[in-house]
């Protein structure tokens, strides 16, 4: 496994933008039991790991973060894609039509990554007489609406994919739990961020091949101008805030300390959510009910208020997240909490950056929120469940996980790939990311009723509290009362 530092800048940017556009996912500590019995996985587990006796074609939704196109992954599709890639002038001259195999360490762009990704899946499943027909149902709200309609109509692909909506589907009994042997294998060999947010009552309902969690990044050049050691990571919230204040002062209106995006939307919840978790707070209680006004959350929002002044006016809580990340890319802000794509994107932009785990608050504990994690799952009424689970198995195969590792845009989730001296030496930034995917990794919860309304109540409350001098506890109390009323309807 060799480093992909030689990737062309435009290639890294192209893929990084696609990855960072993904929203969050998951639900930590789900306790609501699915409406359908988990025993439905018995038939799948009986032969999920065996070869299919007869040829089977499964329908699979595209991941979103890997542009594998649509249609059947057969030789015809691959040949067409190969010709398109060979004609792409951004590909290394070493990639020739007569020698189009994946070579570790070879420079390649995001399209070529997708080619290798689908080629691995096609070849591994062909051994079991399984072919894959990829369908594109969009992403975000569009995808959620189509999947919801598909469940209602009983017309759903064999493998679906998604982010924040997926735990809700599991809790409603719409997804097939993973076969027990498969679940045991995943728990033993895979980082928690790839499956823990999709665990409900001891059953796993989804897997992400390359999930993200957030880390702290900083612009070494701006930090150095403030008289701060650019190679030293802040070790606490107090130290981070002190550094941020110093950068803002040194910038004198030309650049700012920055911090974290806290807009009233999923992008904001995903970025400052880890701070809530670290400070022993969060979005829900043990029963899955809103827990917006906890004492821990009040202290975290107080910290967010301190960060607010270290940005251009309104930027930190802008309803659109794009301008916030643009400010870091344009070197107008020094610190940012974001997903792993920030590393490769900064390299492509020529930003000398630092990366470290998010520092802890006083009395806090390490924790994180999955971000940009595309969870693959098998619907309860899928027509080809056994073959569908075989597809998901390929996603944590050595071949796919080594491809993810070599990509250096995200870290692999398979322990045997990531926890090697070779990987750690070749990809130090992504190894830090891999480490952050262990431990108390959560996902955004799905509330029992009126989910969008409840989220908006919290987001608006945080925005109000951060931008004003109003009593934070009172503001969160009001949001909590309204959220409880919305769920009780």
UniProtKB/TrEMBL annotation:
Q: Which SUPFAM superfamilies match?
A: Periplasmic binding protein-like II
By sequence similarity, the record places it as follows:
Belongs to the bacterial solute-binding protein 1 family.
- PROSITE patterns according to UniProt: PROKAR_LIPOPROTEIN (PS51257)
Q: Which UniProt keywords apply?
A: Signal, Transport
One example GO MF annotation:
maltose binding
Q: Which InterPro entries match?
A: SBP
- List the residue ranges forming a coiled coil, or say none: none
Q: From which residue to which does the signal peptide run?
A: 1-23
Q: A Gene Ontology CC term for this entry?
A: ATP-binding cassette (ABC) transporter complex, substrate-binding subunit-containing
Q: Which species is the source of this protein? A: Cohnella fermenti
Tree of life domain: Bacteria
Gene Ontology biological process terms from the UniProt entry: maltodextrin transmembrane transport; maltose transport
What is this protein called in UniProt?
A: Extracellular solute-binding protein
């Amino acid at each position: 496994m060799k480093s992909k530092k030689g990737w062309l800048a435009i290639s890294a940017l192209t893929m990084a933008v696609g990855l960072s556009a993904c929203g969050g996912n998951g639900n930590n500590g789900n306790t609501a039991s699915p409406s359908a019995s988990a025993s439905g996985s018995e038939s799948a587990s009986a032969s999920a790991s065996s070869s299919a006796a007869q040829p089977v074609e499964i329908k699979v939704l595209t991941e979103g973060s890997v542009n594998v196109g649509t249609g059947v992954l057969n030789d015809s599709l691959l040949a067409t894609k190969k010709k398109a890639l060979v004609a792409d002038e951004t590909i290394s001259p070493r990639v020739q039509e007569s020698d189009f195999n994946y070579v570790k360490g070879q420079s390649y762009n995001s399209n070529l990554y997708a080619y290798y990704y689908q080629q691995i899946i096609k070849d591994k499943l062909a051994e079991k007489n399984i072919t894959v027909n990829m369908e594109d149902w969009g992403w975000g709200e569009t995808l959620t609406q189509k999947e919801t309609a598909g469940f209602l109509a009983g017309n759903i692909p064999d493998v679906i994919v998604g982010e924040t909506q997926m735990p809700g589907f599991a809790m409603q009994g719409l997804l097939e739990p993973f076969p027990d042997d498969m679940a045991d294998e995943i728990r033993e060999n895979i980082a928690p961020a790839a499956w823990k947010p999709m665990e409900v009552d001891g059953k796993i309902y989804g897997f992400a091949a390359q999930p993200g969690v957030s880390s702290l990044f900083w612009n070494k050049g701006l930090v150095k101008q403030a008289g701060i050691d650019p190679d030293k990571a802040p070790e606490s919230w107090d130290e981070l805030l002190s550094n941020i204040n110093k950068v803002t002062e040194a910038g004198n209106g030309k650049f700012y300390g920055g911090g974290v995006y806290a807009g009233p939307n999923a992008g904001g919840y995903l970025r400052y959510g880890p701070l809530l978790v670290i400070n022993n707070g969060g979005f829900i209680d043990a029963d899955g009910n809103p827990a917006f006004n906890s004492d821990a959350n009040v202290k975290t929002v107080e910290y967010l208020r301190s960060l607010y002044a270290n940005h251009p006016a309104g930027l930190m809580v802008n309803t659109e997240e794009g301008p916030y990340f643009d400010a870091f890319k344009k070197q107008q802000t020094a610190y940012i909490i974001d997903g792993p794509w920030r590393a490769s994107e900064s390299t492509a932009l020529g930003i000398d950056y630092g990366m470290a785990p998010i520092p802890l608050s006083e009395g806090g504990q390490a924790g994180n929120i999955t971000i940009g994690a595309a969870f693959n799952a098998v619907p309860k009424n899928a027509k080809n469940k056994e073959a569908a689970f075989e597809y998901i198995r390929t996603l944590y195969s050595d071949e796919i996980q080594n491809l993810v590792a070599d990509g250096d845009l995200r870290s692999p989730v398979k322990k045997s790939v990531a926890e090697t001296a070779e990987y750690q030496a070749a990809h130090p930034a992504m190894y830090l990311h891999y480490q952050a995917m262990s431990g108390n990794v959560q996902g955004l919860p799905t509330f029992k009723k009126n989910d969008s309304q409840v989220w908006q109540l919290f987001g608006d409350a945080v925005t109000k509290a951060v931008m004003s001098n109003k009593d934070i506890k009172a503001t969160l109390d009001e949001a909590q009362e309204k959220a409880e009323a919305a769920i009780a309807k």
